[in-house]
Amino acid sequence: MTRTTALITGASSGIGAAYARLLADDFDLVLVARRADRLGDLAEELRARGAAVEVLPADLATHDGIAAVTGRLADGDVRMLVSNAGASGYAPLVDVEPDDINRLLTLNAVAPIQLVRAALPGMLDAGEGAIVTVASLLAFSAGLMDPRPPRRTLYVAGKAATVAFTRTLTNELVDTPVRTQLVCPGVVDTEWNSGAGRNIAWAMSPEDVASASLAGLRLGETICVPGLEGQEAALDALLAAETALVTGGNQPTLAARYTGPRT
Ligand SMILES: NC(=O)c1ccc[n+]([C@@H]2O[C@H](COP(=O)([O-])OP(=O)(O)OC[C@H]3O[C@@H](n4cnc5c(N)ncnc54)[C@H](OP(=O)(O)O)[C@@H]3O)[C@@H](O)[C@H]2O)c1
Description:
By secondary structure, the protein is an alpha/beta fold. It is built from eight helices and seven strands. Helix content is 45%, strand content 14%. It has a single domain (4-231), classed as 3-Layer(aba) Sandwich (Rossmann fold), CATH 3.40.50.720. It has helices spanning 14-23, 36-47, 63-73, 98-126, 153-172, 192-195, 206-219, 231-249, and strands spanning 4-9, 27-33, 53-57, 78-83, 129-134, 178-183, 223-224. Strands 3-2-1-4-5-6-7 form a seven-stranded parallel β-sheet, with helices on both faces. It binds NADP nicotinamide-adenine-dinucleotide phosphate (NAP).
């Protein structure tokens, strides 16, 4: 197999580093995150296995950081983009600094879109490409009243945007050679959120998440929920609920409950 190039964001730890280790046998790599020392150590490890590895330190919560990565993608040689960098920012919304809202949404929602936009022309020209975007099962947790997950309004807003973006993009690209995949892990045992997942019995390993995603790509899955048995039925039910809401609600007349007398 001819080696092509994969760019992985959030490669300095956790799930992103796991993708890098799994992809290094087949791809040359561009590793993106803020901690250049960590990226340098990983690059050395992977070069010893025969991969050509570039280190691209960038803060994806900033315009300049995104521009550095989109600039690299504009070279047009990247055939796999793993958009994985993210941060939790868990807190009640009232306690979040207004500037942190922009930073978190830029990192979790805007950067993945900008990176895809920059990667697509090269992939379409080459007639091949894969776009993997790591969101979270919490993206589907907006309506859950379960008090156990953390206060997460801003995180859910960003990841839900990423879910909607990637699913819609999948439909947009259906007649092209570019494959997309949305990855929605549950709790993963990483440094995430100061290592909170480390003490949770049902946390999955980052290696299993990355390996499920790559296996899912081989299976042609556009959505990968690594721990979910019966994924197809769950996704069919989700699509049926969305279809009922959109087609049922898109009517010229008011629903009957809005037409009664005002009391
Ligand atoms: N762990 C979980 O329970 C869990 C569950 C569902 C989804 N996820 C998702 O999985 C992805 C990876 O998280 P992880 O669990 O592997 O956690 P992690 O070990 O903390 O990794 C997060 C990665 O994102 C990078 N990153 C954070 N802020 C960044 C910034 N401003 N600019 C560039 N890179 C930045 C970090 O690198 P630097 O700090 O070096 O920049 C690190 O490489 C995230 O998108 C997260 O939402 C995680």
